[in-house]
What we know:
Two copies of one chain form a homodimer.
Chain A: H1 6-16, E1 23-24, H2 25-36, H3 41-53, E2 57-61, E3 67-71, E4 77-81, E5 87-90, H4 96-106, E6 109-120, H5 122-128
Parallel strand pairs in A: 4-6
Antiparallel strand pairs in A: 1-3, 2-3, 4-5
Helix pairs in contact in A: 1-2, 1-3, 2-3
Chain B binds a DNA duplex through helix 1 and helix 3.
Amino acid sequence: MARPSPVSDQVKTLFAAEGRHLWSIDELHESVVQALGAADYSTVFRAVSGLERDGLIKRIDLGDGKVHYEVSDEHHEHIRCDVCGRVVEVPGCVLEDASFAVASSTGFKVTSHQLLFSGICPDCESARQA
Amino acid sequence: MARPSPVSDQVKTLFAAEGRHLWSIDELHESVVQALGAADYSTVFRAVSGLERDGLIKRIDLGDGKVHYEVSDEHHEHIRCDVCGRVVEVPGCVLEDASFAVASSTGFKVTSHQLLFSGICPDCESARQA
DNA sequence: ATAAATGCAAACGCTTTGCGAGTGC
DNA sequence: GCACTCGCAAAGCGTTTGCATTTAT
Lengths: 130, 130
């Protein structure tokens, strides 16, 4: 049996929780600290690295210079607000046929893709009009 | 008139040149050094920053931790080889209708998107079979 | 003289690693 | 005793900035 690992366990718990599916290491660290009282950034980093190595979560690049992760069970896209930076999950995969088209036009064997839409979220849009 | 600025000019030349459309600051720096004999990384960085500020080039995130730029005249996607990392431009925009669908499903006003396919390029694919 | 471009060096932000201490098994 | 987790501190790595110097106008 493995030793108990509160930090690593808490990270897993966070990923398993509802309500949020996208985490930066920073945010995970903050949440773990809040839950356990204390935890080192590097410990959280290592927990995340392990989960990524095991394929349980995957790296998502939002283009903000930070690394984000989400559980890798299902594939989906994201849309980020240009104004507030909020990221929302886009239901469904809109790229099934596109992948095929890309494969035939480039000769590549398409294995995956990452798509990030940018836009203005409803809140920022209404705030903008005020 | 502004003073002559060989470094900045050379950066512009590189972006205007055919044959390559995607550059990291590092690669630009290397090419500028090769062309002019010497140039500082920060100078290249500032040249690039200026071009980006003026909207002549735009930042492209390939998920490799480095910042890449390309001329912003036309919108297109990229596909990167999982094995060698080579990035090839995907002709045409495959996402016109998808943007509309995303807008209606998320409530966001979609302003742009960034898509990166991953796959295996023909060279790596044939090398893999050997 | 003035303003711009450049080089040098250091600061910065985030990620990653080395190492030693603590602790279940 | 062993292996694993953890915290601390520092190293990396790429980006960004401050400052002094040079130089064309």
